[in-house]
Design a protein that fits this description.
With 178 residues, the protein is mostly beta strands. It has 2 domains: 61 residues, no CATH class; 110 residues, no CATH class. The chain is built from 2 helices and 9 strands. The protein is flat. The mean pLDDT is 84.
Length: 178
Amino acid sequence: MMDFDQLDRDDYLGTCTFDLSKLKVKEADAEGGREDLELNLSDSKTNEPISSTISLSVRILSLAAVESVRVEVVYEYERWTPTGGWGKKFPGNLFSTDPGCWSDGTVLKFAMSMEEVEPEVEEGWAVKDGWAMVCGHEIRADGWMFGNSFSSKGWSKSPGPVHFCRRRSWERKLITKK
């Protein structure tokens, strides 16, 4: 495990292993059995315990469930400017060097609208749920994560003094047609 530092080197936190055969959840179904784990970290060289833990949530899905549901992701971006605050207008908030205010899940394709980057629904698949903003335990209620550029490698839940960009994830579920 490593932490993530925006302006400094990432720090080593420790290592852990877990034998998946020891999971209490044994049955896989369409919804997936779930088990929440707390794992103790240790030093990888000395194997000495470190006073840190990680929380891990494991879901077991049946192969049929995995093959019948797919999640697609797109990202929405905004830039902060002193005169305009947060926004995605061009010209205005966005710079001429910004690739666009939407990207596909691979972050390789950018455009100015969601429709231009959303994946096409392949033959044999149907949209189960429309696009929904992702938020939850590790993400702010408004979904925004903060970075210093649209191509940031690490996005932070909290804005910082050099975070002039933000992005949030949008997901939709697809199911196989039967």
